[in-house]
Design goal:
two-stranded parallel ribbon, elongated, alpha/beta, 127 residues, 4 helices, single chain, 4 strands
Length: 127
C-alpha cells in the first residue's frame, strides 16, 4: 500500500492489524523517520510472508523488489506518470492487480502507455 504522507504509514498499518485482529501489516518510511534496521526488518517480514501487507511511502517506489508481490494499492493520489510506473512495477507476479483510491486508473494507464511509447520510439508523435 503506497501512501503519500509518512504520517499515514504507521496508522494505516495499525488500522489494518486492528481490523484483522492480528499482525498482518508493517510500515516502512524514509530514513529520516525510520532507521534502516527497522526498515530491513519490516521488509524481511513481508518478503518471508510473515506479514502480507506493507504500507510504505514513495521512498519505496523505486528500490522495493519483492518477487511475490501480487497487489499494489495506491491509497493517495500520485502526481506524475513516473510515480505510477514505479509504484505499479512493484507488483511482480503474473496477473498482479493494482488498486487506485484517488487517481483515475484509465487516465493513469493512458499516461503510462504514452511514456512507454516515447521510450520505445521517441520520434513518433504520441497519441
Amino acid at each position: 500500500v503506497f501512501v503519500e504522507q509518512t504520517a499515514d504509514a504507521y496508522p494505516l498499518a495499525h488500522t489494518i492489524n486492528t481490523y484483522f485482529g492480528r499482525d498482518v501489516a508493517r510500515h516502512i518510511t524514509g530514513s529520516s523517520t525510520m532507521n534502516q534496521t527497522d526498515q530491513k526488518r519490516h521488509l524481511d517480514l513481508f518478503k518471508l510472508g510473515s506479514v502480507c501487507v506493507l504500507v510504505t511511502t514513495q521512498a519505496s517506489e523505486e528500490g522495493l523488489d519483492v518477487s511475490t508481490c501480487n497487489s499494489v494499492v495506491r491509497y493517495d493520489v500520485f502526481h506524475n506518470v513516473k510515480s505510477h510506473i514505479q509504484g505499479s512495477g512493484r507488483a511482480r507476479v503474473k496477473h498482479a492487480r493494482i488498486f487506485y483510491f484517488e487517481n483515475d486508473p484509465d487516465e493513469e494507464q493512458h499516461g503510462a502507455r504514452l511514456v512507454q511509447q516515447a521510450a520505445r520510439d521517441p520520434i513518433t508523435p504520441l497519441e
